[in-house]
Every structure is written in structure tokens, then in C-alpha cells.
Specification:
Elements: E1 8-10, E2 19-21, E3 51-62, E4 74-79, E5 85-90, E6 95-96, E7 107-113, E8 117-119, E9 128-133, E10 140-146, E11 157-159, E12 166-169, E13 182-188, E14 197-199, E15 203-206, E16 211-212, H1 220-229, E17 234-237, E18 240-241, E19 247-248, E20 254-257, H2 258-264, E21 269-272, E22 277-280, E23 284-287, E24 293-295, E25 300-302, E26 309-311, E27 314-318, H3 321-325, E28 329-333, E29 336-340
Parallel strand pairs: 6-9, 11-14, 12-15, 16-25, 17-29
Antiparallel strand pairs: 1-8, 2-10, 3-4, 3-7, 4-5, 7-9, 10-13, 13-15, 17-18, 19-20, 20-27, 21-22, 22-23, 23-24, 24-25, 26-27, 28-29
Length: about 350
């Protein structure tokens, strides 16, 4: 059987920048490295470009093709002053920074995943993640992944959140979870002339964020057993007993000590005192007192029905944290809570 080969290119090959100042086109000279596996910080030869952008003027808007119709609802064609063209694929998850409706003749700025493959066709047709129509000259848009210090992955911008900074999901709902390691669309005005530039943004939008509830829940039988015997139960991690005990909060929710269990599984734990947050290896983050847990690789906000708490200098998380967030197998056998992590 012969295979039909369809050439593809990645968005990073189009050499666009992911920061836009007003409606002007930025110097388009960034060539982002394409990595086939997740690198360590020491392996990165240069800042990794996560998002690319194109700035120009809309010259055509049309419906998607039959093959695209199930995923996209519009295609916006644009040209820039250098003669470059792009056809943005607009879907339900495309976030519009501005309220202006796309129309022929309007100025457009679009951001898209710099590493996502695209069919080799002209003009290129990237899936638009963020769109700005007629962005005011006094405003700047940045789309990137920001670390725990709120520095963008390309090292060009550091955020300092202010009292008037609006932080939201892209559906407009207020977001009060952790911003670390998330894909953010940032709108801001003035910034410092430093490296990285520092700014207090007007708006921070967490992209593609939905609150979901866990598929796994403790059964009533499990809860009854935990309530009766919890204080005397043992905890094992990969069949080895952990020197720690469970805890039941004032509402009867069973909790487990995160540090003892994570370290027994060979995971690093980092306490971020300023935000009262915890990072578990490169897998998850959460904030004490908030029922919102994030997985770093999926950027999902997950509610487990109970917030993490600190008791006698130990941080405890809900029982379901290990199955839903850490992807471990959790079971309850006679007076033993067994947690099994996958071993590579």
C-alpha cells in the first residue's frame, strides 16, 4: 500500500514574534528551536518560543471548508506591509482580546502555537489561539507560558500583579488559582526598559481553562471506613510504608500529607511562601486554602471538593489528589491506604 505524504511545517518556522505593541508589526526574526522531547533548563540553547504572531490587515473573511467545518467557524485572511499573508482558523476556543468584530480593512493581530504542525499550503493556516482587532496603540499584548516568578518563557516579560489587574478565564469568569506554568494572554500598557521588561498588566487571561470535577470519588463505604479508622491507618507508597498519618478535617473530609507521600515517590516538593502555594515536581501546583488544583502539562483547573490545609506544619490534600492530579492508583485495604505511582 502506498502512503500519501503531506508535507507539514511548524508555526515556528514562520518566524513571527509573540509580543505585539499597538497595531504595529514587530521585527519578525525569532527562530524558535523545535524540541522532540521536554528539555531540562540546562539543555535549552535559547529561549523556547511557545507562541508566534502575525500582524496585518484583514482582506478577506470566509466560511471554513467542509473538512474544517467541524472544528472551525471562520477563516480570516490578512496581509502585512511586507507582503506576507496568513489565513487564521477561528474556532470556539479562539480568544478575542478586543471587542471589535473582525471585518475587511480592520487591523488584526493573531497568536498561535509555534510548535503545532500545519499543512504546507499558502497562505499558511494556523489555528488562532488569541486574536486582537484594532488594538489601541497604547496597549501591548503578550501570549506565552509564564513560570512561577511570572516571567515569560522567552525571558522578555515579567508580570507584577496589581490591585487593578483583572485575572480571568477566557470565558470572562474570575480566576484566583495559580498562574505559574500556564498559557496566558496579557494586556498591558507601560513597561520598564529592562531585561526582562517589567509591567503591571491591565488584564491577564488564562487560556483554555475549564473547571472540571474528578471522575473518581470515594464511595460511601470508603468514607465510612475512613471516618472510623482513619487515624490509625497506615499509608504505603509503592508498597513501602510512609512515616506519616492521615488527617480528617472538621467537615469529615479525609486528607493525606503531600510531602511525605510525594518524597516517598521520589518527587520534589517546593513551597512558595509568598503565595502559599506548593509545586509537586513538574506535575502539579496548588494553593493552600483554595480548591483549585492544576496539572502543569494540561493546564486544567480541577476542583476536588476540598482545599489543601496546613495542620501542625504539614500540608494535607484531599484523598482524590493522588488519583486525579498525580495519576496514581489509590486503594483502601484493611487499615491501609495504598498509593501506587507508575515507575518508569
Amino acid at each position: 500500500m502506498k502512503l500519501k505524504v503531506v508535507p507539514v511545517l511548524t508555526a515556528a518556522m514562520l518566524c513571527f514574534n509573540s509580543t505585539v505593541y499597538g497595531a504595529a508589526t514587530i521585527n519578525s526574526t525569532i527562530n524558535a528551536p523545535i524540541l522532540t522531547s521536554a528539555p531540562t533548563e540546562s539543555e535549552l540553547p535559547a529561549p523556547l518560543q511557545n507562541y508566534a504572531m502575525f500582524s496585518g490587515t484583514i482582506y478577506k473573511i470566509k466560511d471554513p471548508s467542509d473538512a474544517q467545518a467541524s472544528m472551525f467557524n471562520q477563516v480570516i485572511f490578512a496581509k502585512n506591509a511586507d507582503g506576507g499573508e496568513v489565513a487564521f482558523l477561528i474556532g470556539e476556543n479562539t480568544y478575542f482580546v478586543t471587542d471589535t468584530k473582525p471585518a475587511v480593512g480592520e487591523k488584526i493581530i493573531g497568536f498561535y502555537d509555534a510548535k503545532k504542525p500545519m499543512t504546507l499550503i499558502y497562505p499558511p493556516q494556523p489555528q488562532a489561539d488569541v486574536i486582537a482587532i484594532n488594538l489601541p496603540d497604547s496597549k501591548t499584548v503578550k501570549v506565552d507560558i509564564f513560570d512561577k516568578d511570572l516571567v515569560s518563557a522567552d525571558g522578555q516579560l515579567k508580570l507584577t500583579l496589581g490591585d487593578k489587574t483583572d485575572i480571568m478565564l477566557q470565558n470572562g469568569e474570575k480566576f484566583d488559582g495559580e498562574l505559574a506554568n500556564r498559557r496566558l494572554a496579557v494586556v498591558y500598557g507601560a513597561s520598564t526598559r529592562s531585561i526582562p521588561a517589567q509591567t503591571t498588566p491591565d488584564k491577564v487571561v488564562v487560556l483554555y481553562e475549564t473547571a472540571v470535577h474528578p471522575s473518581y470519588q470515594l464511595t460511601e463505604e470508603d468514607k465510612a471506613m475512613l471516618k472510623k479508622d482513619y487515624a490509625t491507618m497506615k499509608i504505603t507508597v509503592n508498597d513501602k510504608e510512609v512515616n506519616a498519618t492521615p488527617y480528617v478535617d472538621t467537615t469529615g473530609v479525609p486528607l493525606l500529607p503531600i510531602r511525605s507521600i510525594a518524597e516517598a515517590a521520589g518527587l520534589d516538593i517546593e513551597w512558595l511562601a509568598a503565595s502559599k502555594s506548593v509545586a509537586v515536581g513538574k506535575i502539579a501546583t496548588f494553593t493552600v486554602g483554595k480548591d483549585s488544583y492544576s496539572t502543569i502539562n494540561k493546564t486544567e483547573l480541577i476542583s476536588l471538593g476540598a482545599a489543601p490545609i496546613i495542620v501542625r506544619d504539614r500540608t494535607y490534600v484531599p484523598f482524590e489528589f493522588f488519583s486525579e492530579i498525580m495519576s496514581a492508583e489509590v486503594s483502601i485495604e484493611y487499615k491501609t491506604i495504598k498509593i501506587q505511582f507508575a515507575i518508569d
